[in-house]
Automatic annotation (TrEMBL):
UniProt entry tagged with the keyword Glycoprotein: yes
Source taxon at top rank: Eukaryota
Species name: Sarcophilus harrisii (Tasmanian devil)
Annotated protein name in UniProt: Sushi domain-containing protein
Cystine pairs: C165-C208, C258-C285
């Protein structure tokens, strides 16, 4: 019996459906044969034309053409094509597309525009104001696509407004000078003056400033207006160098000195203070110390020291002073007796 016809069985027919799909997928992912190129790598600034994008494998010498992505302009000095090389790789891409430039925003009055690179597509700029000015608007802006393929800024130029202070406080028996018509901006100042017969206690000027670069505030409290009178200074055993008057007003100054035989303890220059007293305080005139040496015929030397207390303290302890004078008279009598005895 002759053998029957040989049945040709496909290898794929022997495989299960799932295995067939796996094998087919593996065959599709195999690298192209030498001399052919696969799909080129994606470029950040350009994309392949539709004709080139539809192909999966490219023979040696084939080219693909690119068009610039939105936000980029064509650079005419470089070719927008890549070529499949004999080793199965693509030629290197040149910078045939360059970023579009955003328009100049202009000058920020009383502020600055800050950027670290050229103002082109994708770049960011920031805004800052000078000291004493507040930024009104966005602090940053990005160069982006704003209409079709046109680029522009995501935020407009902000404004730098001067920080303002509220009107300064009013004071009793005085007023401030307003040269700003009610608008007190950063750095401006007002001057306070007092009514007649009143003295200004405190700073004459206050200034509009800020601590948080947002809210304005005055740099200190306003002064006060007071009637200040200091009586003419009375210095026992001393006198005024300047002319004597019945009274002195705030900050008026006098110079004092002591009479002969007295020295000044304290400041010679004093001023009429806000509390109607002399500052830093009244000095005192104290007596100069006098020394007397009595020599006897022997080698013994007896020295007595006489010191008169200041008149202000002496007046408070007159009885004590008289007692000391009596003791001194007794000592002198004893010394005199010794001297005459030895002669």
């Amino acid at each position: 019996m002759s053998p029957g016809p040989r049945r040709v069985i496909s290898a794929l027919g022997l495989l299960r459906p799932s295995s067939s799909l796996l094998l087919l997928s593996s065959l599709m992912n195999l690298p192209p044969a030498l001399g052919t190129c696969g799909i080129p790598e994606r470029l950040p600034f350009a994309e392949m034309t539709k004709e080139s994008a539809d192909q999966k494998n490219f023979p040696e010498g084939a080219t693909v053409t690119y068009t610039c992505r939105p936000g980029y302009n064509r650079n005419r000095y470089f070719s927008p094509t890549l070529t499949c090389l004999p080793d199965g790789t693509w030629s290197k891409a040149t910078a045939f597309c360059e970023k579009k430039r955003c328009p100049n925003l202009g000058e920020l009055v009383n502020g600055h525009i800050n950027f670290n690179e050229d103002i082109v597509f994708g770049s960011t700029i920031s805004f800052s104001c000078d000291e004493g000015f507040l930024l009104i608007g966005q602090s940053e802006s990005i160069c982006e696509i704003v209409h079709e393929n046109q680029v522009g800024w995501s935020a407009p130029l902000p404004e730098c407004q001067a920080i303002r202070c509220l009107p300064p406080p009013d004071i009793a028996n005085g007023q401030y000078t307003d040269n700003f018509q009610g608008f007190f901006t950063y750095g401006s100042s007002v001057r306070y003056t007092c009514d007649k017969t009143y003295s200004l206690i405190g700073e004459e000027f206050i200034y509009c400033t800020t601590k948080n670069m947002k809210d304005g505030e005055w740099n200190g409290p306003p002064p006060k207006c007071k009637v200040v009178r200091c009586n003419s200074p009375d210095l026992p055993n001393g006198h005024l160098i300047s002319g004597r008057r019945p009274f002195y007003t705030y900050k008026e100054t006098v110079i004092l000195e002591c009479d002969s035989g007295f020295y000044l303890e304290g400041e010679e220059k004093i001023s009429c203070g806000a509390d109607n007293i002399w500052v830093p305080g009244m000095p005192q005139c104290k007596a100069v110390v006098q020394s007397t040496t009595i020599r006897t015929s022997t080698t013994t030397t007896i020295t007595t020291t006489t010191k008169t207390t200041s008149s202000s303290s002496a007046s408070g302890s007159s009885s004590s002073a008289r007692g000391k004078e009596n003791q001194l008279d007794t000592i002198i009598s004893v010394i005199t007796l010794i001297i005459f005895t030895q002669i």
